[in-house]
């Protein structure tokens, strides 16, 4: 319903009654991310991970919140930790690539995107991100191929369309 403040209040009341309720803590952290309260969300994900250290989704979403908070080095460490736990996690490799891309480490980002695609060939976002990394590396023909693949998988991807347009411009 988009009533975020009420939802947050309900999660907080639930956690007062059951402070170790992992799913309530996790959903609260996700809500804080939705509310764009990224620093609060990171702290909330930390609490989830205190309760359940192998909560892969919390670890992944914590990394995404770190990226949104522009804390790219911390996000990279976060995704590396996740990949120790789940070595073939395509989503983690894609998000790791996002952190590396924002650090302007384009070759490493490309490698992470390729690992994501190797794990899940139909991962449109990873194909789009691969195209963006290839564009940053001035490898335009390969970028265009990757972006066409992303759009074949997800024709309505605005990001892939923008990256493709930028590639064609270059």
Provide an overview of this structure.
The chain is an all-alpha fold. It is 79% helix and 0% strand. The protein has ten helices and no strands. It has helices at residues 4-17, 22-34, 38-51, 56-68, 72-85, 90-102, 106-119, 124-136, 140-153, 158-169. The model has no long low-confidence stretch (mean pLDDT 96).
- Tally of helical runs: 10
Radius of gyration from the CA trace? 18 Å
Mean pLDDT: 96
Helix content: over 70%
**Overall shape:** elongated
Order of H and E elements: HHHHHHHHHH
Beta content:
under 5%
| Unreliable sequence segments | none
- What kind of sheet is the major sheet? none
- What is the CA-CA span between the terminal residues? 43 Å
Give me the count of strands: 0
Notable traits:
0% strand; 170 residues; mainly alpha; 79% helix; single chain
């Amino acid at each position: 319903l988009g009533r975020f403040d009420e939802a947050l209040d309900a999660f907080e009341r639930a956690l007062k009654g059951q402070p170790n309720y992992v799913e309530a803590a996790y959903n609260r952290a996700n809500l804080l991310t939705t509310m764009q309260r990224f620093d609060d969300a990171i702290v909330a994900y930390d609490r989830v991970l205190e309760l359940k250290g192998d909560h892969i989704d919390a670890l992944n979403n914590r990394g995404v919140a770190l990226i949104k908070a522009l804390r790219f080095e911390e996000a990279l460490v976060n995704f590396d930790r996740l990949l120790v736990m789940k070595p073939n996690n395509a989503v983690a490799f894609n998000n790791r690539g996002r952190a590396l891309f924002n650090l302007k480490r384009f070759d490493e980002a490309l490698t992470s995107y390729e690992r994501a695609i190797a794990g899940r060939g139909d991962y449109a976002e990873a194909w789009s991100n691969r195209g963006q990394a290839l564009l940053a590396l001035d490898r335009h023909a390969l970028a265009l191929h990757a972006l066409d693949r992303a759009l074949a998988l997800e024709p309505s991807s605005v990001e892939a369309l923008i990256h493709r347009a930028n590639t064609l411009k270059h």
